[in-house]
Amino acid sequence: MTGMGYIAVYDVGTTAVKAALTREDGSLLATATSEPMPLHDADGRQEQDSDDWDLAFRNATRTVFARAAQADAAFTHGIGSSAILGVIMSGQMQDVIALDEHLLPVRPAILYSDGRARAQARRLADAVGNDAFASLSGNRAEGSLPLAKLMWLAEHEPRRWSRVRHVLFDAKDYLVARLTGVPSGDTVACSTSGAMNIVTRRWDDRLVSPSGVDPALLPALHAPDERIGVVTPDAAARYSLPAGTPVYAGIGDAGTQWGRRPNGLRGCDRGSDA
């Protein structure tokens, strides 16, 4: 195995972060799952601290590297983490992650299962038109829609909102930003935001403008296989990943299962938020 590289793969879920190291040939080397992450549920609202994702990611990385060292002599002697060829993640979608100019959270993330923004969603649908909104965004205007939840934040938490400089819509994108210093979003995860045109895969002013949200807050959109940046020296020290390792956009978790399928095929997603 001398000279073989490795790929670090993660899933940032609601209850845990799962990590895997695969060899360059696609074979699995080691896996790890972090401890469960707390979920704040009050009055039907569901939030999670982004710092919990950060801690779980660090723990999962340390554990999977330790297990890889036990499983593969090539990883232990002469290669180790310096041969990580790239980092790619999937993650829970349809979240609202509000960050300041330093890419640090101004409040807990509002999760996909939180439907607090019903009134804002109704106003958005009225402004755009129900049929037009569905046609442009591929979504229904409902209380869990991230764009509507951004409207809710602006209206109900103006002090926090005034500090927001970046908004992300997937838990893994927070970790990508911490690793690279670059805010980003993949077109699969952002397809459920209510702000992206489902055909052009770009932010659409016909959707965003009626919300009152500044489009400058929205991240650059990328295909899942696009490279966002590399692990920075500060991130390398924090996360035990080698500086300079490429980090890719990754994909919202609902998109990981599809691959190539015939047109018209339907599917069912199942998961747990508790």
TrEMBL record:
Keywords: Carbohydrate metabolism, Kinase, Transferase, Xylose metabolism. It comes from the Bacteria. Residues 6-254 form the Carbohydrate kinase FGGY N-terminal domain. Pfam families: FGGY_N. PROSITE patterns: FGGY_KINASES_1 (PS00933). One of its GO terms (biological process) is D-xylose metabolic process. Its EC number is 2.7.1.17. It is an enzyme of class 2 (transferase). One of its GO terms (molecular function) is D-xylulokinase activity. Belongs to the FGGY kinase family. This is Carbohydrate kinase, FGGY. The lineage of its organism: Bacteria, Bacillati, Actinomycetota, Actinomycetes, Bifidobacteriales.
